[in-house]
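Worked example 2:
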Amino acid sequence: MKLYAPWEKAFQRISTPFEHFIHSQTTTGLVLMLMTVIALVIANSPFVDLYNHFFHTKIDFNVGEWKLSHTLHHWINDGLMAIFFFMVGLEIKREILIGELSNIKVAILPILAAIGGMVLPALIFSYINMGTEGASGWGIPMATDIAFAISVLVLLGKRVSPALVTFLVALAIVDDLGAVSVIALFYTDTINMLPLFLAGVMFVVMIIFNRFGIHAILPYFIVGVFMWFFMLESGVHATIAGVLAAMSIPSRPKIAPISFTNHTRNLLDEYDNYPIATDHTMHEKQKAILLNIKDTIDAVSTPSARLEHDLHLPVSLVIIPIFALANAGISIDFGSIGSTILEPVSLGVMLGLVIGKVLGIAGTAWVATKLKIASLPKGSSMSQVFGVAFLGGIGFTMSIFVADLAYVNNDPLIFQAKVGILCASLFSGLFGYIWLRYIASKD
């Protein structure tokens, strides 16, 4: 009988890609929460100067007379976050091809709700900040942090239906797509056409790789790095390169599942034909068969699925926590926090994320169901959709990212935006949890 190490059975359990996605997002949310608290504690401690100096340290790359110089904070936001956006691109692509967004009848409700949840917060923010220097931050309250939002739903367990979790995931994916589009179209100051053209050439090369059936990851990685560099030099935010690269990664297997089954069964039969040695070593031919089986497994899986699986852990436990540590550390003067919250930027962000998201998501869903355009997620009520709409007001990661783009070199406005994001995200998460646990669960 095989003896298992502690937790080995749990790790050997086969889960679907969607289950893996949910669990990884929950892990991200919990680690993200921890790093946010750490960043806030450090930023309001005697170590704040060391914290600021560390993330503003210059890191240079020199080749001859060519030089690329940015602060550590910039490298995190433009470099590491490109990998995060690559993951976002893979998730968007999966949802469109085989996920909830692949069936228009199922996808119509989260798509419409996501659009409502993006447009209304932007309008509320724009109205409050009309004619002020903070007006350019209208994209800040449009975003939903999928990791935090899903973490809250998972904490509720069986109190919410699986269809409601799927609804939130699909909504957040559409929200991410909207946020990426806003960053690409509206938060680019100047565009250098030659680097942008070269980035486009790199993207076309990756598409050609796809069309020729190249499944090896290395060629895409090399060309993708060049595309990221040219995008960085063009003025368009470099993280967009991550999304474009994800779109070029093959999503079809080299061999069909039925061929895999037949081929693998034949290989296993051939493997069993060799006698087992007394010292339990394998025959050389058996080793070759096992390598053949491994290659067959790689061929029946897709590069996009493998990358999404392999990147979840480093993105969840390294990249996003580092981003939170570098961006969530704001020094708060508690004596003036009341006046800061009432600043147009902070107020616009808070009302956009709390009021705008709820009315945009839940209101659009209610209208769509009343007009028979869509139906509610199976096993859920309008009251539960209202609670999920509050979770949509957890903006955090993407909202902070947009705030840094909207108010470049304007520290006071970035501070106001981050205060608004933190307050709104905390309120939305707590209220959404309370509503779904104690009120909506009674429906």
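The domain at 15-187+237-252+302-442 is CATH 1.20.1530.10 (Na+/H+ antiporter like fold). The beta strands are 58-63, 66-71.
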